[in-house]
Structures are given as structure tokens and as C-alpha cells.
Specification:
Order of helices and strands: HEHE
Helix content: 40-55%
Number of helices: 2
Radius of gyration: 14 Å
Largest sheet: 2 strands, parallel
Number of strands: 2
Structural class: alpha+beta
Strand order of the largest sheet: 1-2
Length: about 70
């Protein structure tokens, strides 16, 4: 499927551009992302979770709440 194949190139480059083109991130900064279970979210984690950039990815997934307010 050509569309599925295109995603393999688009998602990593989108994650990289989000981390490098919009705001200056410094070593030790935290990166908070929503919808972290998407393919782009996973790429953000892979790009920074290894410690190569010195960033700490923090991810939120819609519908998952660690604390109950009831």
C-alpha cells in the first residue's frame, strides 16, 4: 500500500521538525506531548528517549488518568 509506505518517511521527519524547528530545546528540557500513542508520538519518544538529545519526553494518552477525582 503506497499510503502506508509514505507514513514510514513522514512520521519520523515530522517528529524531528517538531523538536528542532519550533522552539529551542536545551539539554535537560522536558518535552510534553499529547496523543503520545500515535506514530509521531512514538518517534518523538525514540528520538529523545535514548538520551542522545538530553531531553526527557513526557507523554499523555487520551483517556488514561493515573489519579481518580471521584
Amino acid at each position: 500500500d503506497p499510503v502506508a509506505g509514505a507514513v514510514l518517511a513522514i512520521n519520523p521527519s515530522t517528529a524531528y521538525r517538531m523538536l528542532s524547528d519550533f522552539v529551542k530545546l536545551n539539554k535537560g528540557d522536558y518535552v510534553l506531548q499529547n496523543a503520545a500513542n500515535s506514530a509521531v508520538g512514538r518517534c518523538v519518544i525514540q528520538l529523545n528517549g535514548s538520551g542522545n538529545q538530553g531531553l526527557f519526553p513526557q507523554s499523555a494518552i487520551l483517556g488514561w488518568f493515573p489519579y481518580s477525582h471521584s
